[in-house]
């Protein structure tokens, strides 16, 4: 593992520079430039979302984990698959918009298949109803993946399979989080899935904005796709 060389202040400056990216293409370009330092920088931020999501899935998934096929959406460098592997999952497909993040995911050797795709610009490039688990961590937030993509996550999941999502609960993401929760509830009312667990976590990751200090909060949502 690479030594952690970046300081909290330098990581904070990197992340604040991403706020200048207004379009999703600019945001993905930001990740292209950040990819090489991403793992060590998020360790400085005490970023625990991948392990929190993997724990949530693991505590409810009762079928054969070795046989299960997992779709990791906005997979980045592969931190979610790394955590899920610790819980016995072994088959991963990843999707991300950033070629540089995908290159590192490829080098991790954790994924059977990886695809470059801009989320929110068309249907997910996967077969519907194929995956035992669909997971998206660290990407459902303002300026990244549009809320509407959660319908695609549900479509890709097998009936009876799980969908795990995370978002931030801090100030700049309040409106996005409300829109996300509205969509999750709407889909439950439509009979597409049922809510298994929502965990609000106080010490989600270290705050980087000028208005916040200490840790910001975040949330993990686990849904089960209803059998058709
Ligand atoms: C914070 S990283 C999270 C990566 C990984 N899931 C993790 O938890 O470490 C966000 C990822 O989402 C991807 N991303 C953000 N917006 C996207 C979009 N609209 N389409 C495709 N990928 C996107 C970025 O390229 C980046 O790899």
From TrEMBL:
| GO terms, molecular function | S-adenosylmethionine-dependent methyltransferase activity
| Domain (Methyltransferase type): residue spans on this chain | 71-164
Pfam families per record:
Methyltransf_11
SUPFAM superfamilies annotated for this entry? S-adenosyl-L-methionine-dependent methyltransferases
Query: Which organism does this record belong to?
Result: Perca flavescens
InterPro entries per the UniProt record, alphabetical: Methyltransf_11, SAM-dependent_MTases_sf
Spell out the protein name for this chain: Methyltransferase type 11 domain-containing protein
């Amino acid at each position: 593992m690479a030594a952690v060389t970046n300081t909290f202040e330098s990581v904070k400056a990197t992340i604040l520079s991403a706020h200048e990216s207004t379009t999703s293409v600019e945001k993905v370009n930001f990740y292209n430039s950040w990819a090489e330092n991403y793992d060590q920088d998020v360790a400085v931020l005490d970023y625990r979302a991948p392990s929190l999501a993997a724990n949530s899935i693991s505590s409810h998934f009762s079928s054969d984990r070795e046989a299960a096929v997992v779709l990791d959406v906005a997979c980045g460098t592969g931190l979610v698959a790394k955590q899920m592997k610790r819980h016995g999952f072994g088959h991963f497909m990843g999707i991300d918009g950033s070629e540089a993040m995908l290159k590192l995911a490829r080098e991790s050797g954790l994924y059977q298949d990886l695809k470059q795709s801009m989320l929110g610009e068309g249907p997910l490039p996967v077969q519907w109803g194929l995956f035992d688990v669909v997971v998206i961590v660290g990407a459902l937030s303002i300026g990244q993946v549009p809320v509407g993509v959660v319908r695609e996550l549900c479509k890709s999941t097998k009936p009876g399979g799980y969908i795990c999502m995370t978002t931030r609960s801090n100030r700049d993401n309040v409106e996005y989080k409300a829109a996300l929760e509205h969509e999750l509830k709407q889909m439950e009312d439509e009979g597409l899935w049922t809510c298994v667990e929502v965990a609000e976590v106080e010490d989600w990751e270290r705050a980087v904005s000028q208005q916040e200090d200490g840790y910001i909060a975040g949330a993990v949502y686990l849904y089960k796709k209803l059998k058709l």
